[in-house]
Amino acid sequence: MHMSPCKDDFTSMQPNTNGHMVRVAYDRIIAGIGIITIQETIEGITYEREVHHVVYVPELRCNLLSIRSVNKRGYSFHSFEDRCEIRENNGKLALRGVEWTAVQNAVQSENAYGFCNAAQAGASNKIKLWHERMGYVLGKQSRKPHLSVGLESNYGPGEKIHTDVCRPVNISTPSGTRFFLVLKDESTGFRKVYFMAHKSKVINRFKEFEAFVRTQIGTQIKVLRSDNGTEYTCGKFQTFLKERRIIHELSSPYIHEQNGRAEREIRALVESERSMLHAKKVDKKLWSEAVNAACYILNQTINPGDTTTPFEKWFRRKPTIKHLKIFGARAYMNVLKEKWHKFDPKSKPISSDVTFNENAMSSTDASAEPTTVAIEFDAEERDERDAPIAQQEPQLEEQIEDHGEEANQNEPVPAVENVEQLQNGVNAHAGR
C-alpha cells in the first residue's frame, strides 16, 4: 500500500474510522485512504496518472510507493543507476523517477495495515548519526549461540570417538604429568583418560586406545572428532589415521562448540577432581589420581535420560560398585610377617611420605637411590608425624650403616615402603 504525508496531493480521500496504525520507529496513525493524481511530462507530453489506495499518514517525511502494489496491478518496476521506471505489460512507460536516492527502500508487509520498512538517504545522513550516538553498535556484536545437538548417535559402540587434550596443569604430578587426554565414545558415552608429560605423546596414547577398542569390543574406529591442535594435525598422527582408514573430523578454528562433547567431558572431570581433592584436603600433586577416579566413577554412573551405564553399554555386562571407597580416605597396608614381632601390629596406616627403592625388585644393589612419593590422606595427622620421624632419621642412618655389610653378604635387601618398615627390617637382621 502506498503512503503519503501530503494531504493536498489527494484528489479524494475517505477518513480512517478504524484506528489503524502504521508501525515504524513508533506508531503512526493513518488519517485516511484516498487517491492521488500524479502529473508527469514524458517526451514533451504531460500525463496524469491516478494512484489508488494511498494511505494518508501525516507524520511521514516522504512519499512511499509500494512496489508490491504496483506489481499486483500488472505493472513492472525497473531500477537503474540514475533513475527508476514503472512500465505497463506492453513495455510502455508509465512513471519515471529521476532521483532514486531519495528513497532507498520501501517495502509493504502482507498486512493491509501493518509495518512500513523504509530508509531515507539524505544529506543529513541520520542513520550514521544515530549509529554514532548509540556507541557504534557494530562494535558490540556477539556470536549467536550454537544449536544443541541431540544425544542420539548413528554409530555403534567404539565407531565414533570425540577427543581433546586438557590444557597444561600448573602443578606436575610426582611422575611429571601435566596433561591428560580424553577419549569419549559417542554411542555409549564411555570415556577413557591418558596422562602425559608432553602433548607430543598424544599419538602414542591414541594408538593404545585404538588397540584397546579392537581387543575389548572388537570394533574398528571409523570417525575421530577433534579440534585443530597440532597434536592431532601433525604428520605422524595423520599417517596413522590413514593407515587405519579413520575419518578425521576437525572443528573450525576458535569454534569450540563443534567439539563440545570432549570439551564438556574435560569440564566434568576437572570439576569432579577439584571436589575430591578439596573435600579430603589431598595434595594437589595427586590431581591425576583424582581425574582417573572421576573417569572411573562416571563410567559406572547412569546419564540423565538413560537407563544403562556407559560401562554396561561398552562391555555388555553390568558393573559393580561394591569395591568403591571414598577418595582420600585413610588406607592401611599389611605388614609382612617377616617384618613384625609377636606383639607388633599387622597393619599400619600409609604415611604421607612413602620412601621406597624402585630398583630393589629387580636389582640387589642396596646403594640404589630411593625415590620419595607424596601420598596425602590426612593433612593434620601428617604434620603430627613429621616431627618424630625427623628425629629418628639420624639414628636410623647409623643402624643402616652398621648392618648394611651384613645384609649384603647374607641376602638381598628387601624393598621397603617407608621409614618405619626400614627400621623393622634392620631390627629383624639384628635379631638373627
Write a structural description.
The chain has helices at 67-72, 126-133, 202-217, 230-233, 235-243, 260-279, 287-299, 310-315, 379-410, 419-431, and strands spanning 2-4, 10-15, 21-23, 27-29, 32-42, 45-56, 76-79, 84-87, 93-97, 105-108, 116-119, 160-165, 179-185, 191-196, 223-226, 247-250, 332-334, 347-349, 353-356, 371-374. By secondary structure, the protein is α+β, with helices and mostly antiparallel strands. The chain has three domains: 2-98, no CATH class; 133-142 and 154-315, Nucleotidyltransferase, domain 5, CATH 3.30.420.10; 330-357 and 371-379, no CATH class. It has a five-stranded mixed β-sheet with strand order 14-13-12-15-16, sandwiched between helices. A hairpin with a 2-residue loop joins strand 5 (32-42) and strand 6 (45-56). The radius of gyration is 41 Å and the shape is elongated. The termini are far apart. The model is unreliable at 100-124, 352-423 and 425-432 (pLDDT under 50).
